[in-house]
Design brief:
423 residues, 32% helix, seven-stranded mixed β-sheet, binds glycyl-adenosine-5'-phosphate, alpha+beta, globular, single chain
């Protein structure tokens, strides 16, 4: 974890939020490489969950909604954590966070004096308006409600028919008491969710739930996460969210233990019923409140686990074995020698051509070995080197990140070569 944290900062994936002011607990900034990795994760998710299906449309709702939404959705009442307060220093912790509590007790020389657990709401309040009293609203605690309150708008404005889904990616906010493990538990984070609406039928909806479990775990595997590091964990009834009939988490075996990074929930008719929404089947005239199967992934947690899972060391060499589709840069282009204008000119030409098609990077610092080392560490799948032979026969060497093997390829075949590698 320490190594990944240090790499994330050193190479510009993840920075502490407001770092020059001492940081701000639970907030993180993504640097030049982090934003690319994050965008690639979201792009792949959208490709699989929206473009790859005929029965899903996307949307993008506002972060702040009429506060009545949170009343109806049950979040004002039930979106809470049980907290205990240390009577010695008045710090608060989640009462079920045993390790954190034990560590805190050590700070007081193993003395402990705790209050009884009390429920604290995790919605983040904001105050709007220019005159007092200002209007209290909330930053959304899950992106989901924006989809539900637009259910009728989507049905009326598109040709969707049940079963169908609405997909969304966006920021959510939670007043987490104990943020930690880099971005794992943050107060501002991003979710990628599908709300899939089905007929209210116990057996059919269970099958949809099982189908989405397979689709979602398969997606992480297809992008390279090791199978052995993934598992499902069904929610015990007492741990279920207030809206869930039943639920399971996809967990990753992180250095800090098995940890949830996507939830699959059978939400039944909880949300649409509370918002007073229904669906009318135009063919049969039948009216009903659809049931919802939800897949809710965390973009930041996925990114963290893609980084952890792809981190590997080979002697001195650090390699991020990211799937090429996720890698921030697809290709790095170098002239063999920086002080030979004919090599630089040829390499610049290749760089400019490839840059129109892929996100690539130019590197002419230090020697070739150092450049390979630097690109391996940020997960660039291929390095192109222009050498003296390139001037004679219009070929270059392409070095593969994972095998470190090199092949010679004609310059005009490079786009096709990389395109194939990105499939
Ligand atoms: N709409 C359902 C929902 O929000 P959830 O299980 O509370 O369900 C879904 O959250 C996902 O959002 C989690 O699996 C996790 O990946 C991400 N997430 C939740 N809280 C988070 C936090 N404090 N920091 C980072 N990611 C978080």
């Amino acid at each position: 974890m320490e190594k990944v944290t240090s790499l994330a900062k050193r190479r510009g994936f993840i920075f502490q939020g407001s770092e020059i002011y001492g940081g701000y607990q639970g907030f993180w900034d993504y640097g030049p490489l982090g934003v690319e990795l994050k965008n690639n994760i979201k792009k792949e998710w959208w490709k699989s969950m929206v473009y790859g299906r005929e029965d899903v449309v996307g949307m993008d709702a506002a972060i702040i909604m009429n506060p009545q939404v949170w009343e109806a959705s049950g979040h004002l009442k039930a979106f809470s954590d049980p907290l205990v307060e240390c009577k010695i220093c008045h710090k608060r912790f989640k009462s079920d966070d045993e390790t954190v509590i034990k560590n805190h007790e050590k700070e007081h020389g193993d003395k402990s004096d705790w209050t009884e657990p009390k429920q604290f709401n995790t919605l983040t309040e904001v105050f709007l308006g220019t005159t007092e009293p200002k209007e209290k609203a909330y930053l959304r605690g899950e992106i989901t409600q924006g989809v539900f309150v637009n259910f009728k708008n989507v049905v009326d404005s598109t040709r969707v028919k049940i079963p169908f889904g609405i997909a969304q990616i966006g920021k959510a906010f939670r007043n987490e008491i104990t943020p930690g493990n880099l971005t794992f538990r943050s107060r501002e984070f991003e979710q990628m969710e599908l709300e899939y609406f089905v007929k209210p039928d116990e057996k059919d909806s269970e099958k949809t739930f099982e189908d989405f479990k397979k689709i979602r775990i398969g997606w992480y595997e297809s992008l390279g996460i090791k199978k052995a590091k993934l598992r499902f964990h069904d929610h015990e009834p007492e741990k279920r969210a207030h809206y869930a009939r039943y639920a399971t988490d996809i967990e990753y075996e992180a250095p800090f233990g098995w940890s949830e990074f996507e939830g699959i929930h059978h939400r039944g008719d909880f949300d649409l019923k509370n918002h007073g929404l229904k669906y009318r089947d135009e063919m049969t005239g039948e009216e009903f409140v659809p049931w919802v199967i939800e897949t809710s992934g965390g973009v930041d947690r996925a990114l963290l686990f893609f980084l952890i899972d792809s981190y590997s060391e080979d002697g001195e060499r650090i390699v991020l074995k990211l799937n090429p589709r996720l890698a921030p840069y697809k290709v790095a282009v170098f002239p063999l020698l920086k002080n030979k204008p004919e090599l630089v000119e040829k390499a610049r030409g290749i760089y400019k051509d490839l840059k129109e098609k892929f996100n690539i990077v130019w590197d002419d610092r230090g020697n070739i070995g150092k450049r390979y080392f630097a690109q391996d560490e940020i997960g660039t799948p291929w390095c192109v080197t222009v050498d003296f032979q390139s001037l004679d026969d219009d070929t270059v060497t392409v070095r593969d990140r994972d095998s470190a093997k090199q092949v010679r390829i004609a310059i005009d075949k490079l786009p096709e070569y990389f395109q194939n590698g990105l499939k």
